[in-house]
Description:
Blueprint: H1 11-22, H2 26-42, H3 46-55, E1 82-87, H4 100-103, H5 109-123, E2 126-132, E3 137-140, E4 143-146, H6 151-154
Parallel strand pairs: 1-2
Antiparallel strand pairs: 3-4
Helix pairs in contact: 1-2
Amino acid sequence: EALAHQPEGALPDRLAAAVAQAGGDPAALAEARHWLAALAQDAADETALREQVALSTEADFWDPRADRVSLLTMHAAKGLEFPVVFVVGLEDGLTPFSWGALGGDTPDPAAEAEERRLFYVAMTRAKDRLFLSRAVQRAWRGQVRTMPPSPFLRAIPAELVVEEKAERRRAKPQQFSLF
Length: 179
């Protein structure tokens, strides 16, 4: 709405003025200004900008040249590719998610099919290497439990899987001296 009260001029300039008027957290405003300026570059007018803002997601601003780790949900990863992908939490109850017997729900076939599709999306984001990971034991609902593997893992042909078991190493207790 702040754009409507700005004088005529170039859209990026009007955006900068509206952001400056808004006040608030400087870091958040700087990021918002950066994103809006990027969208305004391609917008012919205010209506086109509003449409681009409504349809854009954080994934639209992902820089493939950045040398960093991106932590994404399976939903947010759609349409992106990465050299290496880690999919974690592949235990039954997490993937596919289920409240299980404790929650009293029964598995919904449509929801499980959607989660299987998302799992496929996550796996196909990897260009070079894919790591699928699960915990044997996990703190779950207030206690440490042994969790079975996700049923989705059984659908992967054995010849495509290299299974490695990581052993947890505990540091030896050390007594510190005050003297």
